[in-house]
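Figure S4 source data
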Amino acid sequence: MDKQKQQLAILGGLSLVLIFFLVTTFMPKKKSSRMAAAANTSAGPLLNLPQPASSEAPRAETGAAKATPEELKSQQEKTAMDWGMDPFFHLVDKEVYKGSSLTLKGVSIGKGRRRYATINDEIVTTGDSAFGYRVEEIDKTRVLLKRGDESYYLVFPEQ
């Protein structure tokens, strides 16, 4: 009987944990007054919700600190910084600037034998036009580029 009592105690404890979990999961959450006020002020203008009329004067948040002019200037300088190329922005026809060179940085052969190459931080595939050239062929170690009658293989740089 001792083993059965232990099993019943464990089963009872687990059922209490399950009941507690279900109750806390399905009970509606109450928002604190501070969170509700923030939600009303931030979501109101965006959703065109009517704002409740209040006879009270607006209260200042006690925990919120205002940025100093130096901090604001620092943030504005950071937004004006040049962060380089956007990896998600792809121009179809990029021209090579005078004095620049093409560099093969990577080759990927994926499922279904889809082949991609990275040339000067731009991802291209067979048939794409890039830097004024058309990508004709992509191999493991080289890419065939053509422009008019010109054609040449672009290979990985020596290290």
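Figure S5 source data
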Amino acid sequence: MKLIMRRIVLFTLFFLTLYTYPLIAQEWEFIKEKDGIKIYTRSEENSRIKAFKAEIDIKTTMEIISGIIEDVEGFKDWDEEIKEIKLLEYVENHMIRYYVVYRVQWPFKARDLCVEALITQDTVTGIRVLMATVLEDLVPEKPGIVRLQDYWGRWTMEPVGDSLIHLTLEGSVDPGGSIPSWLANMVITDTPLNLLRKIKTQFEE
């Protein structure tokens, strides 16, 4: 009886290990550092596109940096890939919904998506997070534009000193359509690097 119970326990542990293994996130791999911005990537479970992470320390306050990050209509000022952006709904300190169209180089079609970003802030640490995911069926799909289906993004704003914020941008987006995965992964670090570089320059002028 003891032998049978032991085998049952071992089988159960083996099964749980197999079941939970895919849920364990891959470790971030450091890619490069440029202009004080550190860039990482990692493979994502069930995705052909890698996720990215970019980090930088900025001399500013939480009020100022959160005001920039949460002003979605201002995204087009520091993201050259945005062709059109429209605020759909905003609840201060809670939620933002918006629609965005991205330029894509010829011969590929433009991309668009609707986003819902939920805002949270830890009352103890002061860490503020904006978590963005796809919001389906809010805006009808348009002819000639590919609707993005697989997307997530997270801004983390962490106070680390006197008027110093550690800003982290993480995310993953599958461009879909006919864009090959090797091409998308080849340029996956360009977007976060350019975004944080543009944000950084606002505090250096």
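The domain at 2-201 is CATH 3.30.530.20 (Alpha-D-Glucose-1,6-Bisphosphate; Chain A, domain 4). The radius of gyration is 20 Å.
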